[in-house]
């Protein structure tokens, strides 16, 4: 994996919509490059024959009964909404 440049960090910050101080860019480039190198090392590990697991301690998940625990308050909530139609909440269009 090649090391990230200052321009790469600026582009990543712009895509993530985060502000990065110019003085910190070199440090971020170094740290992010190290993370990507670690990911490359993990990807190169041979995992053939390894069963995927949900928990590192081989514990089972606590399960609860699949039952309703709250009463239906749909009518109450919809009575408080500015606009509803056919049981749906009407909202302003935000995507053209």
Summarize the structure.
By secondary structure, the protein is mostly helical. Helices cover 39% and strands 4% of the residues.
How would you describe what is shown here?
The structure is a single chain. By secondary structure, this protein is mainly alpha-helical. It contains three helices and two strands; from the N terminus they run H-H-H-E-E. It has helices at residues 6-16, 25-43, 74-80, and strands at residues 84-85, 88-89. It is flat, with a radius of gyration of 25 Å.
What's the layout of helices and strands?
Elements: H1 6-16, H2 25-43, H3 74-80, E1 84-85, E2 88-89
Antiparallel strand pairs: 1-2
Helix pairs in contact: 1-2
Comma- or semicolon-separated keywords:
single chain, 96 residues, mainly alpha, two-stranded antiparallel sheet, 3 helices, 39% helix
Radius of gyration: 25 Å
The counted number of beta strands is: 2
Question: How many strands, which pairing sense, and closed or not: the largest β-sheet?
Answer: 2 strands, antiparallel
Query: What separation lies between the terminal Cα atoms?
Result: 40 Å
Question: Number of helical segments?
Answer: 3
């Amino acid at each position: 994996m090649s090391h990230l440049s200052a321009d790469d960090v600026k582009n990543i910050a712009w895509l993530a919509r985060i502000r990065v101080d110019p003085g910190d860019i070199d440090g971020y480039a170094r740290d992010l490059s190290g993370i990507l190198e670690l990911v490359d090392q993990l990807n190169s590990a041979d995992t053939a024959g390894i069963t995927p697991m949900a928990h590192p301690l081989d514990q089972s998940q606590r399960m609860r009964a699949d039952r309703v625990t709250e009463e239906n308050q749909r009518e109450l909530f919809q009575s408080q909404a500015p606009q509803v139609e056919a049981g749906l909440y009407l909202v302003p269009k935000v995507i053209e």
